[in-house]
Write a structure and sequence with these properties.
heterodimer; A: mainly alpha; Arc Repressor Mutant, subunit A; 4 helices; 52% helix; B: alpha+beta; 4 domains; six-stranded mixed barrel; PadR family transcriptional regulator (chain A); Tscrpt_reg_PadR_N (chain A); WH-like_DNA-bd_sf (chain A); WH_DNA-bd_sf (chain A)
Amino acid sequence: MKRESIGELEELVLLTVGALINEAYAVAILDELHQQANRLIDVTAVHSVLRRLEKKGLVSSEMKGATQERGGRRKRYFLLTQAGRQVLEESMAVRMELYQKLPKLTFSVS
Amino acid sequence: MSQASTQGHLPPRWASRFLEWYCDPYLLEDLQGDLLEIFYRTTSDKGPRRASWQYTWLVLRSFRWSALRKNSKLKNNIIMNSGQHFKVAVRVLWRDKFNTMLNTLGLTIGIVCFVLMGLYVTQEVTFDHFHTKKDRIYRAWLLEDYGEGKIFFNSNTPVRFENLFEENFPEFEEVVQYHLRNFPVSRNQQDVISEPVAVISPEFFEVFDFDLIHGNVTEPLSGRYDLIISRAYAEKYFGDEDPIGKTLQLQFDEDVTPFTITAVLDDIPQSSSIKFDLAISNVLNRELMGERALTAWMMVGPETYVLMKDQTSIETVNAKSQDVVMSYLGEEMNRDEYNIGFQPLTDIHLNPEIPAGIAPVSNPVYVYVLGIIGLLVLFIACINYTTLSIGQSIKRSREVGMRKILGAAKRTLIFQYLSESVLVALVSMLVGGLLAVLLIPTFNRLTGTELVYVFEMWHLAIFFLIALCIGTLAGIYPAIILTSTKALAIMRSGSNSRGKHWVRKVMVTFQFVITVLLISSALIMQKQIRFLQDKDLGFEYQAFVSVPLFSSSESGRTTERIASARANGALLKPKIEAHPQVSSITMASHAFGTPGWAALSFTDDKGIFRTFSMLAVDAEYLSAFDIGIVEGRDFEKGSGLDERQSILLNETAVDYFGFENPIGKKLPGDNFGEHRIIGVVKDFHFSSLHQEIAPLVITQNVLPMFLGISDAEVKDSMIPKLLFKFTGSQLSQVQEILTEAWESTFPNRNLEYTFLDENVARQYENEARLNKLIGVATVISILIAAIGLLGLTVLVVNSREKEIGIRKVIGASPFQIFHLLARTFSWQLILGVVLSIPLTVWLMQQWLEDFAYRVGIGVDMFALSTFISFFVALVVIGFQAWKAAVVNPVKSLRTE
């Protein structure tokens, strides 16, 4: 199987899904991205990213938990799959490796 | 989040329905849930309005074209099947060629009319819109109001406004002036032609988007004697040569100055208020207008345009402009006497409330009227289609029944029938649009408009959309009627879908109302315009020629310039007079047919502010124009006393000044020079018939009048014109006589002349144009109505074929049959005529109010228009009805 490559926004959303554990649905992801990464994106963008990730098999989804504030509609909760976790770890490893090679900054700035 | 504050609000229903329609059901629930959650959150944070916008936006953002293809609801549906629908539509239309032809023809004609009117309206409405900074450009106006009716309102402004604005209003990024003046221009001192030359600020091109295409395009007027030339004029003067660096001679007064061409300007579009072919810098204002004009507050000339800085508002300027004026004029004037205001550039062309500056202003009412007429004609063309299709539905009900039995949904059927009308509309649009564009030159010639159409690709989309709308509009009603009948009922009884007959009748009547309205209006307007042109104006003007004279010096006092021009006239006069075919030769400061005669004002001895028009003439004037004397005497030729101080009044002036016995009296002002009233002339219409006759003073010597007045408004130049009557039959001889006399007297001057009757007729040009446009629309609407009527008659004849046959067998005469058929539409036509009368009367009264002298609307025009409509109807119906009436009944009854 070809290795899935993911984009920057996809990676961010994937991380957020992982971080929110059992609370990851579109609006929550949107808020988390806003608070943590200070990114303002609209919900349609989050939806299409989630759709793509699901198609690539990096997340799985499940409908549950109707609430009044959504007009009685259920939410689609996303969970990180094994493949998703692996993709994240690989990309983190690559980053760390490169980051280590960065010359250390000293406090010699006067 | 508080539930209470949000529960009352729901997102826009149509957006939700759209979402539900396109969205994959698998994805719908959570997406909609998310959108709702965000909607409620925004409602409580920022209010429901904001939330609705956001919701709609998100719904539209989520839409994917690809989603449609996968959508199971849409499979086997409209979009997928449109190819199929159109194929069937083509077959159906082909089968009934006669009806299809009538439908297409009617719609095509309607579309031609609509497109032409639409282009005209668009051009008028988007006048001056091509400047990218148009929203920030304003033109200054000046309103002087000294009370007691002493009001002077101008869009031409004093020269000093340019500096005044630059120094006092930091809100302006740029202030420029534009003036258009005539100067004799030549390339080599030989062929001198008087050309309009724009005098503009060097920064002019920073404000306006006129394209400099060649030469020094960044600072074209940096030199004092630099000249900008348009592409067309470059060709006119230099042919294929490169004009840059070449010179043209401009003549100011007697001085000929060479100007160097520094840049070529792309020709200015038709839809621009500012239009010129030659431009020089206004640093020359001192030479051109004299020292005084530079600092004067009351002398107006150029138009002043300002470019606002970004983020500034004209209101802030308006708020302080009076303070600025007072800081300069506080000692001489009261507050609010001298007012400066600003008008947006895009408002100039169609705002009649602010006086026209250099370019004429269009009448917005005419533009809207024409737009509405275009729409109405299109509308009756659509009605045509609708009524004909409803008629057809009788024939097609079986088809519908069959389709329904085979399982077609109502919606599918509606789309099937709509695709027919859309197809007809598309074909009509294609033909009509092309035809309209091809007809533009004819249209311009016929109506005197200056329509220019430049095609761009995106117009195709507009045309396509319009065709879709027309097709839907015309086809939706018959489609609904046709498909709403019960399948079983149709199949059982054959044809009974005539239930909605009244709708058809209303539509036909409405069509008649509009057609008759247009016919009557066109006739009444025709009558008024003929009245204007034939009215006895109180003077002779047929075959009169007007030759503007010139003063040897452009500067100096008005009186000196008039005297100089008069002396020039005296040189020319004997040479023209010698010709046997010339009679009644005279000189006057103004000629008939030219508006803006000198209007002089003074405050009389009772303290009343008086305004009168003044005409300076020579002793032969009254006899030349055959203007009658009511009281006293005419000027005596050769009398020095008359030349110096005698004046004549018209009857209106006698009433206006309140003279009982005017002869020998003086005007009721203190400061006038020595003068005496020697006679009263019969009133004559020296201004157009839009206005009442104004008080008029006729004099040979303007000086005593000028001494006594406080204000003067002179729109037409007071430099005398030589006027004479040409009694020969070949008008071309006028040219010969004039050229010969002129060139031997003034070899370096350009000869100009006009015919008075043409000038007089031109005063009603706008009205005549409107009349012609409405005439075109009328002819078109008659055609459309006739086509519609023809189609309907054929239908009725076809559906009553058997009935007619039986009647004939029983013994009805052909005439009785004809009568029977003609009666079908006659009451609708009568109703149409009756309903149109009050509408026409109301509309025409509005229009006629523009004229001080007007015709009564009268019964005759309505009688005529009724006759015309009945005649057309009878011809159309008659032919078909007659054919049906004389056919052998055996033929119609044998079948089956």
